[in-house]
Amino acid sequence: xxxxxxxxxxxxxxxxxxxxxxxxxxxxxxxxxxxxxxxxxxxxxxxxxxxxxxxxxxxxxxxxxxxxxxxxxxxxxxxxxxxxxxxxxxxxxxxxxxxxxxxxxxxxxxxxxxxxxxxxxxxxxxxxxxx
Length: 131
Hints:
Blueprint: H1 2-28, H2 35-57, H3 62-76, H4 79-91, H5 95-125
Helix pairs in contact: 1-2, 1-3, 2-3, 2-5, 4-5
């Protein structure tokens, strides 16, 4: 039961954070390109790699890992919104924009997960604490 509550709480915080960042980005960038969603997806991809590696290294309890990785980042990253936005771009004939959006999100998302993991490993190697 603790795991379910942890996921629910993390999910609420992740979704709220996603919405806040989306609003923040759109205040500064006016574009037909879904900059808010791609910003959240790329940031979330990096952070899930970083946090995942740190939580694993420090042997954090499962409910905290579920809170962060499944709950928070599961609702923070917006790949369902990502898919919907691609479909909308295709519906209005923006095929090139939809393809660029999909490739950028997927390629850089995976690279940023790996970058976050490498950064965490470097932090740990520099004596970032013992598990």
